Automatic annotation (TrEMBL):
Coiled coil: none annotated. This is chorismate mutase. GO terms for molecular function: chorismate mutase activity. It comes from the Bacteria. Residues 5-96 form the Chorismate mutase domain. PROSITE patterns: CHORISMATE_MUT_2 (PS51168). SUPFAM superfamilies: Chorismate mutase II. InterPro entries: Chorismate_II_sf, CM_dom_sf, CM_II_prokaryot. Its EC number is 5.4.99.5. One of its GO terms (biological process) is chorismate metabolic process. It is an enzyme of class 5 (isomerase).
Length: 282
């Protein structure tokens, strides 16, 4: 005779298991916090601008996505870890997030809260310039500005040595229906060794800029352009991947009929990492 299947666990037993897991997770988080004092000393957090380490964070977010499985939505896992990482960065060296809300206040606020949580102070500004200026005056604050459009060439102030730079592009993990999908550049001062240089961002001033030239350049690089009425040109913010180079972009600009007046590196960030809807990574 076959044995009777074991009785399913009671609700009480399952809740006990959940309580044990919650306690374990809480204890692990507290243990994670215990490392911070030692980390501050080793990293010399207080000596550079921000404790934010864009290369390390982009890497951690990619590993999280690659490891993830099961019924908990990726959006949830990503947002939990963003809050954990940002809050631990904050407790190493407090900072504020200065967001340019001129693009879309709700979308910008969602991005700030999703990526930096609620413990890190959020300060709204009505222009990218104002957000970047607030960061320039601070030691380690962060600015969030649109990565795809602008009314002003806010990146010109990043050209100076010692000025803050573009250090990341959010979201770290792109996908259709991302809950905080707004493409955003993070601007801050961080240690040179913490920068990730897969995509370099250049401030390029050109004369002779027009829609045709913009079209000719668009397959080669991502460009934010602001017309510069002073000399019939434009201030460009150009993101260049390893597949291309500033020389190639300059040659293409000249071929298309523009002349390049100046170029300056204004930051860099990790390669855009996309998770297609099927769940396979690219
Ligand atoms: C802990 C560090 O500092 C920050 C916080 C991190 C975290 O909590 O995991 C990761 C990267 C940094 O932005 C670190 O540099 O490793």
């Amino acid at each position: 005779m076959s044995q009777r299947p074991p009785a399913p666990p009671s609700l009480q037993e399952l809740r006990k298991e959940i309580d044990a897991i919650d306690e374990g997770m809480h204890r692990l988080l507290m243990q994670r916090g215990d490392i911070i004092d030692r980390l501050i000393q080793v990293k010399q957090t207080q000596e550079v601008g921000s404790a934010f380490r864009p290369a390390r964070e982009a890497d951690m977010m990619r590993h999280l996505v690659q490891r993830h499985r099961g019924i908990l939505p990726l959006d949830t896992v990503e947002s939990i870890w963003r809050v954990i990482i940002s809050t631990f960065t904050y407790v190493q060296a407090p900072f504020s997030v200065h967001a340019d809300v001129s693009v879309s206040e709700p979308a910008m606020r969602d991005s700030a809260r999703f990526h930096f949580g609620f413990t890190v102070p959020y300060v709204a500004h009505f222009s990218a310039q104002a957000a970047v200026e607030a960061v320039a005056k601070s030691k380690g604050d962060l600015a969030l500005v649109s990565a795809t459009s602008s009314r002003t060439p806010w990146w010109l102030t990043l050209e100076e040595a010692g000025a803050p730079k573009i250090i990341a592009r959010l979201p770290f993990v792109e996908r259709a229906d991302h809950p905080a999908a707004l493409p955003v550049f993070v601007v801050s001062r961080v240690a040179d060794s913490a920068m990730v240089t897969e995509v370099e961002t250049f401030s390029v001033r050109v004369s002779g800029w027009n829609a045709e030239i913009a079209r000719a350049l668009s397959p080669l690089a991502e460009i934010v352009a602001v017309p510069d009425t002073a000399f019939d040109g434009a201030a460009l913010l150009i993101s260049i991947t390893a597949a291309s180079s500033l020389d190639k972009i300059k040659a293409a600009l000249i071929d298309a009929g523009a002349s390049v007046r100046s170029t300056a590196l204004v930051g860099s960030h990790a390669t855009r990492y996309t998770v297609p809807p099927t769940g396979t990574k690219s």
